[in-house]
Design a protein that fits this description.
Length: about 475
């Protein structure tokens, strides 16, 4: 039986091209168990290839017909193809890992197979290995991807866990749309039209300065971040202490998310100043906000979009944070006024011009809808293990597109916030500097707030 794609999921296939792959990924770095045998990673690969029954979305294949695209269960998934064993060239440092991840993330997933791949990478220095897993965005958003990959982890070092794709009785992303009657869905969306009209009115009033202040689509300045992209990606990472972020937020009466956005604004401001390409007006970020109901593990994509100014036109880090706080407060208030059932239609109307820019390839020539995507995805808040190996870091890897040459996504894990910065290799040289500047921006904000300087932050430079 073929199950029809939702409009949001279908859009990711419309947006996909050789230059704009539409998959997201997770990069997990593990420390080998004490006294691990020489064939530990080889045995782990065999374990990940061992399931004979798979669960969705890992066993779901795209089916194209005259009636449109749909999902069909694949009962004969070739795990030798999907689970791959790689090794880094010596010395196996962060740069070598970044070069490999950049190359892997540049390659589109085959539409003739289930839309995912897992690469187990051994040879990382300091007795470590990595796992890079990518999945098409039509099958999973960031929250879903983190949840799926966390299923293979355990809180106990000695516990054995199944592969993430091993069959379970959990509801599947592909089956959820089929359970919702089309007529009921249409009625729900029609009922939200008055609220959506009010939302449009608030946006119009904000445009003329007569309403609540929040960033609007297409209010962003043109910048080198909004260049056309080629298919090759560049990837960099940074890891920051959540304790330090919370302390800075408390001192400024701001949320951790506000601090994250302000730090991204600081890093991008410095990056663009280095290139003598800083716009006089503030950059605008698209910030995905989870609209997932409590306990919802089925929806593949359940987000809405908030726009926020990053304060890149402000030199002082504290004032930049205050400006970000004002912008996000207005954006959150705007989203809360939209009924939950209206967010899919709201997103479709709001982002249709952006999608058209990406599909036609004119995103780099037209006025940008926004300058950069900044996303914060929650992850496990306690130590996790895989077959005895300790998870050291969990980095997200996201999407770049025409007119959106860089994407910043972060994931929390065990007291740290792990940033993954993905961008177009040709459009943005030296992208790794954004990762370095993120770490230094936190120190600058702490100093400006009068906080005691924390121990030096370990900078991770996964870039090539």
């Amino acid at each position: 039986m073929t199950q029809k794609l939702t409009s949001v999921d279908n859009a990711f296939f419309q947006l996909e091209s050789h230059d704009t792959p539409m998959h997201v990924a997770g990069l997990q770095i593990f420390t080998l168990p004490t006294h691990a045998p020489a064939d530990y990673v080889q045995n782990l690969v065999a374990h990940l290839r061992s399931p004979t029954q798979l669960s969705a979305p890992w066993n779901v294949r795209l089916r194209q017909s005259a009636l449109g695209r749909g999902w069909r269960t694949d009962r004969d998934v070739d795990l030798d193809y999907h689970v791959r064993h790689l090794a880094l060239p010596r010395p196996g440092g962060e740069r070598e890992l970044g070069a490999l991840v950049s190359r892997l993330h540049s390659q589109r997933l085959s539409r003739h197979r289930p839309l995912w791949e897992c690469h187990v990478i051994e040879g990382l220095e300091r007795n470590r290995f990595a796992i890079y897993t990518k999945i098409h965005h039509a099958l999973a958003d960031g929250v879903t991807t983190i949840r799926l990959l966390t299923q293979a982890l355990s809180e106990a070092p000695e516990a054995a866990t199944p592969a993430p794709w091993a069959a379970t009785d959990a509801p599947t992303p592909a089956s959820e749309p089929a359970r919702r009657a089309p007529l009921r869905k249409l009625c729900t969306q029609l009922a939200t039209l008055p609220a959506l009209a009010q939302a449009a009115g608030r946006m119009a009033r904000s445009t003329v300065g007569a309403g609540e202040a929040f960033a609007l689509p297409f209010s962003a300045p043109s910048s080198v971040l909004n260049a056309p992209v080629t298919g090759q990606r560049r990837y960099a990472t940074q890891q920051l202490s959540i304790g330090r972020l919370k302390a800075a937020g408390k001192a400024a009466d701001a949320t951790v998310n506000d601090v994250v956005l302000a730090l991204c604004g600081s890093a991008l401001r410095r990056f663009l100043k280095d290139a003598n390409a800083l716009p006089s007006r503030s950059l605008v970020a698209a910030v995905p906000m989870s609209m997932r109901e409590p306990g919802d593990t089925a929806s593949a994509n359940a987000v809405s979009i908030m726009f926020a100014g990053l304060g890149t036109d402000i030199a002082d880090p504290v004032e930049r944070l205050r400006q970000v706080k004002r912008s996000t407060a207005g954006g959150k208030s705007h989203l809360r006024a939209i009924p939950k059932g209206g967010h899919p239609l709201y997103n479709s109307l709001l982002l249709a011009p952006f999608a058209l820019q990406v599909i036609t390839g004119i995103g780099a020539q037209a006025r940008p809808c926004f300058n950069v995507t900044v996303s914060n995805v929650p992850g496990p808040n306690r130590p996790m293990y895989l077959q005895g190996a300790a998870l050291e870091a969990f980095y997200p890897v996201s999407i770049a597109a025409h007119g959106q040459a860089v994407n910043i996504t972060c994931t929390s894990y065990n007291g740290s916030l792990n940033f993954g910065i993905a961008g177009c290799r040709d459009a943005l040289p030296h992208l790794q500097r954004v990762a370095v500047y993120l770490g230094e921006a936190l120190g600058e904000l702490e100093a400006a707030l009068g906080l005691t300087q924390a121990p030096p932050q370990r900078v991770i430079r996964n870039a090539a």
